[in-house]
Structures are given as structure tokens and as C-alpha cells.
Q: What sequence folds into this?
């Protein structure tokens, strides 16, 4: 059920960190264990699921149960270690960011494998990395965080551009993958460290929904 | 347009009860008739639609219009009988619960028919039974009820396990179906009657979204 | 990348107007540029995406990047012209309504092309025209506007009925398209001008979610 190599190890660590992020936000809403599990799962596999539906493929987690198991481990982890998890925020930020980089690579390669052009692949890399967080925020009934704060989805797009620049240069696949993941991590860390974010689109009262 | 046998009768009763649940919650939000119809429809067919998209099948309600008609009847019922519907809560709870059991069986059998393994089928049984309610709560802009209250999705999973235990034992299909539906109904009724629910995952202020 | 003929011109104007509507509502929520872009995109292409997933087709915007470009232009337009956009409300209402009519025709024809019967096609016409607005409202965390206000989705369904009446009469395709678009525009304008809307479904406190 679990393959063991570096890619899958990073994949599971990323899944674990994404799931933890969902489970923690669900706990702030006093969801029960089941609700927290589903929110964790949506965070971890939601992006890849939307990607696979758009690409016309069977969602990846329906082909092997390991992602469900990793999310269950994340839930047990939060139940057992509770508030201590908060102290590990930096550790999870690292996992989460490495996972984000890998998710981008997985999304791009899966799209190219399905015969789509590079600009679709870049979008799918971004969706793989960030749509799970949007699904999480819809489930907990909040405005999606990535629409208001931080460079997150843009880090995925930047990574996607690096992927194709590297690929176009003729670099070997492994180098392309490492460069892509590194660039996602770099942009994400720099933007958080230096509080770099996109401008807010200013609205006025007149523009309210009704 | 309407087949008549016990399975489809239960199917339509379940659809009707699910639709009523959506329409009533939409009315509490002062949605108009159209909004109430769509929320009723999402509640009744949303789970099966998500299931079919994940399985790569054409959504079941696109193959025959009866589900749209049953939901329209439910809307007319609420418009005509209004507040009296509330007094029938227990009746609808029974319909809803029997429908839930049947939806689980339908979801499992449809997944197996599409060639997926048993653990995917159990998840699809749960999605068929409970994702419509989540879609309903997203449409009315509330935190999904099943993430916070009662044993609902877990009753579906329990039913799924009974299905495979029964199937593995070699019992005839009809017995397996009846056992599955009965076990979903039993778990659901016991959990409501004795207020059995999953533990809440405790959060802290620090875990807020931002 | 951009075809030039009347249909595509209307298509891009409609996409532009739909995107503006999403971007303006995102700005009222103080989303950043990226968030506003995604909400604009969801409004413009969300309906067609859901339609294509239900029909089992590759989402239309993955086949050519023009819709992403038009939405980017809409974002730049709002960033540059800001509050002045509000004064153009009537202009956008016209674009939006013409776009709505065209989206209905596109949705119907794409469904028939995929082999579905007329009642599915009418629903897909409605989904093409109105599901993007629902997605927009979920992203900005509001109750969907079309569930509470105005004749919007019903204008799409009326247009769909006109399409099939015209088609059944044996009128040429172009006439059928023009009649459909005109009838959607007419119903929409009349309902807004004379404040015609569907009855609200009255609820009571007892019907609250929990």
C-alpha cells in the first residue's frame, strides 16, 4: 500500500501537513472527529481531485488508499497531541511548503501525461497545490484564505514557469523537478518572511452583493 | 418515466424526504421558489452526482427526469402545506433514514459495477448518502451539519461494512441489501434516540484561520 | 488564439461582463488581485465548467486560453478604472444579459452535440448561464444571489424552451439562436425593470438548521 522512495515520502509528508492544516481549522470550529477528518482530507486531496476531474482522469486517491490512511494518522496525531501541535507550526510550515512544491510538480506532470499543453499544466499545478485549501475554507464557511493573504497560488505558478523554462532548456527531469520544488519553496518562504503580498483590490459600499 | 417496484419506490421516497429537508432549510433563509428548488435538488441528488463524477459515469439524474419531478413535487408540497410539514418531522425522519440506507446500497453497487474495489465502494456509499447534505449547507451558507452533529456519515460507513461482510459470507444479494439498509437505519435511529455523537475536536483561539 | 466572428465576439463580451461582476464583488470583500481574478474567472467560466464535467467533456477553457486572457483584461480594467466602473453599471448589465443569452445557446448546443435529450440540454443551458454566479457567491461566502432575487435562472430556462419550440418548428439554426438569445434578454430586462420576482418561500424559526 505504501511505496517507499523519496518522491512518495515527500508526497506523504505534504499530505500529512496539508491534512493537519485542515484538521486544526476544523477544530477551531468545534467540528467533530468525522468533520475534522473530512476537512483534513479535502485540504490534502481536494486540489488533486479537482485537477483529475478537469483532466478526465480517475481521482488519484481512488487508486490506492494510502492518502486516506495518512489523513487518519494526522487526525489521530491532533487528537493525541492537541495543543502541542501548535508549537510545531514552523515544522508544519516546512512540510506544507515542501509538499506544495511537490504537488505542483505532480500536477504538471500528470497534465502533460494526459496530453494537455503547458499552460493548462501550469494551471493544474496551481490547482493541485491550492484548491484543497479553498475547499477547506468553503467547508469551514470562511472566505478562502488564499484569496486574501500571502503569495501562495502565485508561488505555484512561478514554480510552473520554472518547470517549463528548465524543461525547455533540456535539463534532465530530476533537475527540473528539484528546481521547480525549490522555486516554489523559495517564493513561499520569502513572501512569508518579508510579508510580501499582492495589492488588495479596493471596493466601495456600492459594490456590495445586493 | 417512473418504474414501479419496491427499490424505486424507496428511492423516490428517499429523494422526496431529502428534497424536503433542503427546501425547508432554504425557506428558513427566505430563498425564493427557484432557490428552494435548487437547494432541494442539491440535497437529493448532489451526493449521487459527486459519486458519479468521481466514478467517471454520467450523473444518474441526467438519464431520466424522474428525480427532478420528485423534487418539484416536494417543492409544491412545502408551498401548499407550509407549516404543517413541520408536524410531519418524524415521518420525514423515517423516509429520510430509509432513503439514506438505500442510497448507500445504490452507491456501493454502482461503484462495484464500475470496477472499483470495496473500500472505494464504501466511500461512495457514504458520499451518495451524505454529500448532498453538505452541498445543501454550502448553498445556504452554513457550516455543514454532518461535520458537527449526530452520527450520519458513519452510519453509511457502518452499512457499507455490513454490505461487504454479508457479501463475503455469500448471502444472496437481496439479503445483503436488506441487511445494509437495516443497519444504516438502526445506527441512525439509535444515535438520534440516545444522542450518541462523535467527540468534538477541541480548538483554541490560536488555531483560527488568520 | 482569438477567433473573430459575431458569436465569439458576444462570447468574449459576455465573459468580460461576467468576470467584471465577480471581480467587483471580490473587491467589496477586499480580496487581493489574485483572489479577484479567481472569483472573476469562476463567475465567467464556472457554469460552463460544471456543464462540461456533467456532460463528460473536457472543460472548454482548457482547449484555448482566450477566456483566461479576457478575464485578465477585466481585472486590469477594474484595477485601472476602479470606481468609474460603477458608473458603467448599465453598460455591463447589457453585456452581461447578452452574454447570458449566448451562454444558454452554447450550453444547449454543446449538450445536444454530446447526445443528450432536450430536457438535459435546457438544464445545461441554465447551468452554463447561472452556475458561475453561484460559484462566485460561494467563494465570497454569501448566500447565492440567484436563489433569493430576480428572475435569472428562469430566464435561461425560458430561453431553452424557446430554443426547442423554434427548433421543433423547423426554423433555421441562426433564427433559433437569435430567438433564444432575445427571449433570455427580454425576460431578464422585463423582470429587472418591473421588479418581477418569484415568491419567497416563507420559513419559521423551527426550521433553522439546528
A:
Amino acid at each position: 500500500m505504501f511505496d517507499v522512495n523519496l518522491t512518495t515520502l515527500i508526497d506523504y509528508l505534504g499530505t500529512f501537513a496539508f491534512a493537519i492544516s485542515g484538521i486544526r481549522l476544523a477544530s477551531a470550529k468545534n467540528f467533530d472527529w468525522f468533520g475534522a477528518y473530512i476537512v483534513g482530507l479535502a485540504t490534502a486531496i481536494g486540489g488533486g481531485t479537482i485537477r483529475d476531474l478537469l483532466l478526465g482522469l480517475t481521482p488519484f486517491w481512488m487508486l490506492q488508499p494510502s492518502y486516506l490512511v495518512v489523513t487518519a494518522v494526522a487526525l489521530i496525531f491532533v487528537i493525541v497531541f492537541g495543543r502541542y501541535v501548535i508549537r510545531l507550526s514552523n515544522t508544519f510550515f516546512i512540510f506544507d511548503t515542501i509538499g506544495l512544491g511537490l504537488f505542483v510538480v505532480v500536477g504538471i506532470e500528470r497534465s502533460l501525461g494526459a496530453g494537455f499543453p503547458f499552460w493548462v499544466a501550469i494551471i493544474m499545478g496551481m490547482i493541485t497545490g491550492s484548491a484543497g485549501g479553498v475547499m477547506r475554507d468553503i467547508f469551514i464557511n470562511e472566505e478562502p484564505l488564499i484569496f486574501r493573504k500571502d503569495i501562495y497560488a502565485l508561488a505555484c505558478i512561478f514554480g510552473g514557469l520554472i518547470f517549463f523554462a528548465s524543461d525547455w532548456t533540456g535539463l534532465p527531469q530530476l533537475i527540473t523537478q528539484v528546481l521547480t520544488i525549490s522555486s516554489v519553496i523559495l517564493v513561499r518562504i520569502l513572501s512569508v518572511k518579508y510579508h510580501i503580498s499582492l495589492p488588495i483590490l479596493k471596493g466601495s459600499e456600492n459594490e456590495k452583493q445586493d
About this structure: The mean pLDDT of chain A is 90. The CA atoms of residues 22 and 39 of chain A lie 5 Å apart. Chain A has one domain: 6-195. Chain A touches chain C through 33 residues (CB under 8 Å).
